[in-house]
Structure formats: C-alpha cells, structure tokens
Amino acid sequence: MSPSFQTRAWIVCLAGVCFLAGFASGVLRERRGFDRVARAEGAFAAYRERLVRDFDLSPERERWLGMLLESYQQQLEQLESRGLAGMQDEVVELGDRYNDWIRERVIPASQRQRFDLMLGAAAGGDGASAAL
Q1: Is 65 in contact with 57 (CB distance < 8 Å)?
Q2: Which of helix, strand or coil describes residue 110?
Q3: Which sign does the torsion angle of CA 46, 57, 36, 99 carry?
Q4: What are the tens digits of pLDDT across the range 35-72?
Q5: Which of 24, 42, 63, 96 is the most buried (most CB within 10 A)?
Q6: Helix or strand or coil: residue 122?
Q7: How far is the C-alpha of 69 from the C-alpha of 94, rounded, in Å?
Q8: Helix/strand/coil (H, E, C) string of 22-90?
Q9: Which residue, 110, 84, 82, 108, is CA-closest to 95?
Q10: The pTM is what?
C-alpha cells in the first residue's frame, strides 16, 4: 500500500466518523426539542383549546396565546428547578401576570368580561390565578 492511499483512507474514515457523530447529535437534539414542546403543549393543551374554541380566536391571537403559554411553562420550570417550597406567592403572582397578559393581548375586548367570569369560576370566585 502506498502512503497516499493510507492517508486517503484515514481521511475518509475521519470524515465518516465526523458525519456519524454529527448525525447522532442532531437526532438527539431534535428528540429533546420535541419532548420539550410536547410537555408544554401537554400542560396547557386543554386550556389553549378551550380559549381558542370559546373565544373564537383569530390565528394571530392563537399564536400570541401559544407564545405566552410556552413562556409561562418555561418560567414555571425555572421556578421548579429552584425548588417550589416557599415560592407559592411567586407562582400565584406569575399565574396572575400571565392571565392579565392573555386577557389584554389575546382575548378580544368585547369578550374580556366573559373571560373574567371564566377565571372567577375556575378560582371559585377567589382570584384569577387558578385558570393557569
């Protein structure tokens, strides 16, 4: 075997290993991304569907709702990673803040009173944070 053939063989072998490592890395990252999205959708899927259906949200308002719920899920996960013990006030405050944002940015102005009634019923008439 000539030295140039051996060099080429090593280059091809190295390129193959790099390709396979990159491919495996991409597959793992994709799966983790889908898991995160599935968790976020799973946590608030029923709530999202109810708001879209009950308030007949436009596609733009539905996108806003999706972004807000995803952000809310991420912030909840951050709180969980710090430990929820003793953070009930922060969780309630976060839920109230997101309910306000959904009310102001997603729900049409003509239907906000109905949204407030829905929140009141979900909370048993005792604050809005129970809906989220």
Answers
A1: yes
A2: helix
A3: negative
A4: 444 444 567 888 899 999 999 999 999 999 999 999 99
A5: 96
A6: helix
A7: 12
A8: HHHHHHHHHHHHHHHHHHHHHHHHHHHHHHHHHCCCCHHHHHHHHHHHHHHHHHHHHHHHHCCCCCHHH
A9: 84
A10: 0.60
Q: State how far the Cα of 78 lies from the Cα of 83, in Å rounded to an integer.
A: 9
32: left (phi over 0), alpha (psi -120 to 50) or beta: alpha
How far is residue 32 from each of residues 2, 36, 38, 62, measured CA to CA in Å?
46, 6, 10, 25
> Residue 101 CB: number of other CB atoms within 10 A?
16
Given this model, what pLDDT does residue 61 score? Answer: 93
C-alpha to C-alpha distance for 127 and 51, rounded to whole angstroms: 18
**Residue type for 30, please?**
E
